[in-house]
Specification:
heterodimer; A: alpha/beta; 40% helix; B: mainly alpha; MetI-like fold; 10 helices; 0% strand; flat
Chain lengths: 275, 223
Amino acid sequence: MNIFKKTIFSVLLSILVMGNVNADKIRIGTEGAYPPWNSKDESGKLIGFEVELAYTLCRYIGQQCTIVEQDWDGMIPALIMRKFDAIMAGMSITAERQKAINFSQGYADEVASLAVMKGSSLEGLDTPAGINLTKPNAEAKKALKTLTAALAGKTVCVQTATIHQNFLDSGDVGKVNVRTYKTQDEVNLDLASGRCDAALAAAVAFSDYAEKSGKPVVLTGPTFSGGAFGNGVGVGIRKDDTELLNAFNKAIDKARKNGDISRIATKWFGFDASM
Amino acid sequence: MDFELMINSFPKLLNATLITLKLLSVSLLIGLFIGLIFAILRLNRNIIINKFAYCYSYVFRGTPLLVQIFIIYFGLGQIESLRSSYLWIILKEPYWCAIIAFALNTGAYTSEILRSAFQTIKPGIIEAGKSLGISSKIIFYKIQIPVAIRQSLPAYGNEIILMLKGTSLASTVTLMDLTGVAKYIISTTFKPIEVFVVAGSIYLFLTFCIHNLIQFLEKKYRY
């Protein structure tokens, strides 16, 4: 019995010690379900633009990193509760999120767009190719009006707690039925099944789904930036962690200068989404 | 602790509780009906009918409710021919998908609860009815069913409470029930503890009410 107790004690102790060994690694949280930003391969290994970029940035910082998987809807709370030290999960820099956490400078541009199934009445809307909502010009305002009329009474699906949900909730395109899902995968499934009249997310998320599933998903309307869509994607860091924030900002500077961000972005997106 | 957030989110969560209660009551009602039918089928001596009823309760008690709701919502939505049929009018709506999953699930448990209640009825009660010359049909409706329902009250109360907590899974198929709205508030405030404490308290209060209601009924129908 005594030996048994000793064994348990030493196992518990070693778990505690192991926890401490990990302490000087930077833990980076990502979702692993938003391809091509971050996702998982068949074996369950985390892959994607941000996973590769995270390891690159850590090399510049000069510290080891571990990447931690975390559901999207608990991402910011998990950072605040110290389950990891930084977020790299396609998270756009918005004023709302900046109330809770800090962001590094942006490392990539997320271009949002509506998507519908081929043959939908919402296909081929008469709008400019892209609008900026930070200071909407006459063209952007007209596009929002067109969208308001087209989306009236329609069901638009988004992933929960995203800039896309914020935009639809802001009322810029009038009253639409917003349906929220835990993951982008589920949004894609319900868009394909016809439960959603349209979906809103990063344009690359839809083209990735269309390519992999072979479903006739097409983009429609303008691409969105600014306003509720924030100012690029950055690394989310706890408010009190200025040291790490500075380290990431410097690392992003270096990685940008050396062309690493452009290279990795082109590899995963098919175009240079770096900023 | 952000008490202001707790107070501000309370009315929104209370509003969402109505959806939770609607999901619970509708699925329990349909589930009770399904459960009663399958309990009677389970008592049938015909081996095919008996096995069929057994399979139903085995499958729905043997798989997680989350899996059932996902199969009904996301799974059936993938079938092309179903989408062009009339069934799609119902299955298109997350509300009805949730109700179907909950009703089938609680129906399976209820059928087992009622079956065991039927089997524990003392033969003497039925024999007493027979000796008074009452037909076996009337004995079934007027004696066996009421006694079985009384016998199953404690177990059924448990099932109602389990189902109340089960309805929180409706939020996984986009329904804005108590859990769904709590998650929504968290998604804009990033403060899960405060909001979940309030939502949890509402669930606890509902459980308290159900528990007391069942206890009241148990006392009232004591024999």
